C-alpha cells in the first residue's frame, strides 16, 4: 500500500527532505535553523571510530559519549521547542498531548533518521520510564538522546541502566534525578563557515531531495537506513554532537585526541572500503563528500603519488583527514602521511604524500 509519508519517486520519508536541505555548497542544514548542520554518514564508520579510539587509549568511552550526547540533545531540543512548549510538556506528561511531544515525536524522528526504534513500556511520567530499544546503531548515543530529551523537557536527566534481552534489543530503565556534574568539558554549540557553492546535485522530482538518497532503503518501522546493495547502515546526524563528544574526550582525557581520531578513521576506511567510493578522483570525492554534508571539495591535485585537496565548509575535520588517508591507502596501495591546516576562511587544506 502506498505510504503518504514516503516520497513515491525516491522512497525517502518526506520529513527527511522537508526538514533538511542539501545545499549546493557541500552542506546539509536544517530548514528551521540553517546554522544547524547535519551529516548523512555510514554509522559503522562512527561506531568503528569510537571503538578504535577505545582500543588506542584503552578505556571505555561509554559514559563520556552518553553524557556528551545528552548535553547536545538537550541543547538541540531547547532550541527546537520554545520554553512555553517545554513547560506545557512538563505539565502534561501524563496526558496524550504531552506524551506526544515528549516521547512519540522524538522517537518518530529518531526512526526516520536511522537511529533504531523505541517503545515506551511503562512510566509514571514523573520518576521513571521503562522502554524497549531495538536496533540502536550505537546504544550509548541512544541513551544520551533519551537523557537529553528528559533534561530539556523536565529539567532532569535519567540515570539509565540497560539490559540486553536479545540481538540488538535492550530494556532501558531511566530513573530521573537531578543533573549530575562531573565532566570537565563545557558544551560549545559549534559554528561553521559557510561559503556559497555551485554544486548541482541531481534532484528528486517528487520531493526535491538529492536523487542519490534513492540508493538507500528506509525501514521506517525499525529505524534503519541502509544502502540497497552493500547494506551499509546510514544515519542522519548532527556533526556538532560528534565534535562535542571529541571535545569532551579531549577535556576528560587531557590530551590531544585529533591524531587518534585520524588514525582510527584511516584504519576504518582502509579496511572497510565503502562501495560508493569507487574512485579517488575529483568528481567522485566532490559528490560523495557533498552528499554526506561534509563539505565542498574545490581542488584535488595529484602529482605522481602526492595529492593535494582543498575543502570549503568542512566539518568533522579529523575524520575528513583520516578518510583521505584511508582512501589514499586503498587507491595508491601505500600508506600516506598527511599534512593539513585550516585556513582563516575555514578552508581545509590536506596534502598527502607517501610515508
Ligand atoms: Zn523524493
Order of helices and strands: HEEEHHHHEEHEEEEEHHHEEHEE
Query: What's the level 1 CATH class of the largest domain?
Result: Alpha Beta
Distance between the termini: 56 Å
Helical amount among residues, as a percent range?
A: 25-40%
Largest sheet: number of strands, sense, barrel closure: 6 strands, antiparallel
| Overall residue-averaged pLDDT value | 87
Provide the CATH topology of the largest domain: Muramoyl-pentapeptide Carboxypeptidase, domain 2
CATH architecture of the largest domain: 2-Layer Sandwich
| Number of strand elements | 14
Please report which band the strand proportion falls in: under 5%, 5-15%, 15-25%, 25-35%, 35-45% or over 45%: 15-25%
Structural class of the helices, strands and pairings?
A: alpha+beta
What would your notes on this structure say?
The strands form 3 sheets. Strands 1-2-3-10-9-8 form a 6-stranded antiparallel sheet. Helix 8 runs parallel beside helix 10 (317-332). The chain has 2 domains: 22-41 and 194-354, Muramoyl-pentapeptide Carboxypeptidase, domain 2 (2-Layer Sandwich), CATH 3.30.1380; 61-177, Trafficking protein particle complex subunit 3 (Muramoyl-pentapeptide Carboxypeptidase, domain 2, 2-Layer Sandwich). The chain is an alpha+beta fold and 355 residues long. The chain contains 10 helices and 14 strands. Zinc ion binds at residues 7, 9-10, 12, 204, 206-207, 209. Zinc ion binds next to loops.
Amino acid at each position: 500500500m502506498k505510504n503518504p509519508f514516503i516520497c513515491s519517486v525516491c522512497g525517502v520519508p518526506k520529513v527527511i527532505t522537508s526538514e533538511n536541505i542539501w545545499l549546493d555548497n557541500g552542506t546539509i542544514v536544517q530548514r528551521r535553523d540553517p546554522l544547524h548542520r547535519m551529516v548523512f554518514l555510514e554509522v559503522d564508520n562512527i561506531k568503528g571510530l569510537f571503538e578504535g579510539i577505545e582500543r588506542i587509549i584503552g578505556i571505555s568511552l561509554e559514559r563520556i559519549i552518553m553524557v556528551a550526547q545528552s548535553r547536545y540533545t538537550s541543547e538541540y531540543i531547547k532550541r527546537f521547542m520554545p520554553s512555553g512548549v517545554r513547560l506545557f510538556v512538563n505539565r502534561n506528561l501524563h496526558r496524550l498531548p504531552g506524551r506526544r511531544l515528549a516521547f512519540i515525536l522524538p522517537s518518530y524522528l529518531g526512526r526516520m533518521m536511522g537511529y533504531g526504534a523505541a517503545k515506551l513500556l511503562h512510566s509514571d511520567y514523573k520518576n521513571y520510564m521503562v522502554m524497549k530499544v531495538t536496533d540502536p546503531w550505537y546504544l550509548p548515543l541512544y541513551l544520551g538522546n533519551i537523557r537529553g530529551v528528559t533534561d530539556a523537557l523536565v529539567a532532569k536527566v535519567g540515570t539509565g541502566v540497560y539490559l540486553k534481552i536479545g540481538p540488538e534489543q535492550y530494556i532501558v530503565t531511566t530513573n530521573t534525578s537531578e543533573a549530575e556534574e562531573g565532566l570537565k568539558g563545557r558544551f560549545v554549540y559549534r559554528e561553521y563557515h559557510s561559503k556559497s557553492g555551485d554544486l548541482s546535485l541531481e534532484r528528486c522530482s517528487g520531493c526535491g531531495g538529492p536523487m542519490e538518497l534513492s540508493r538507500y532503503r528506509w525501514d521506517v518501522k525499525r529505524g534503519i537506513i541502509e544502502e540497497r546493495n552493500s547494506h551499509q547502515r546510514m544515519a542522519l546526524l548532527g556533526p556538532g554532537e560528534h565534535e562535542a563528544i571529541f571535545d569532551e574526550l579531549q577535556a576528560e582525557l587531557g590530551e590531544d585526541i585529533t591524531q587518534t581520531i585520524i588514525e582510527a578513521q584511516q584504519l576504518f576506511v582502509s579496511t572497510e572500503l565503502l562501495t560508493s567510493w569507487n574512485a579517488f578522483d575529483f568528481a567522485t570525492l566532490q559528490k560523495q563528500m557533498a552528499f554526506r554534508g561534509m563539505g565542498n571539495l574545490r581542488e584535488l591535485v595529484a602529482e605522481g603519488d602526492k595529492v593535494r585537496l582543498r575543502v570549503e565548509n568542512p566539518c568533522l575535520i579529523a575524520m575528513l583527514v583520516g578518510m583521505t588517508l584511508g582512501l589514499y591507502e586503498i587507491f595508491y596501495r601505500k600508506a600516506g602521511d598527511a599534512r593539513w591546516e585550516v585556513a582563516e576562511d575555514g578552508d581545509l587544506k590536506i596534502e598527502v604524500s607517501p610515508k
